[in-house]
Amino acid sequence: MMSKRFQGKVVIVTASTQGIGYSIAQRLGLEGASVVISSRKQENVDEATEKLKGQGIQVLGLVCHVSNAQQRKDLIYNSLEKFGKIDVIVSNAAVNPMAGKNTVTIMETQESILDKMWEVNVKAPVLLTKEAAPHLKKGSSIIFISSISAYNQPLPWAMYAVTKTALLGLTKVLAAELGPDLRVNCVAPGIVPTHFGKILTTNESLKKVILSSSLLKRFGTTEDIAAAVAFLASDDASYITGETLVVAGGTPSRL
Question: Contact, 159 vs 98, CB < 8 A?
Answer without folding.
Answer: yes
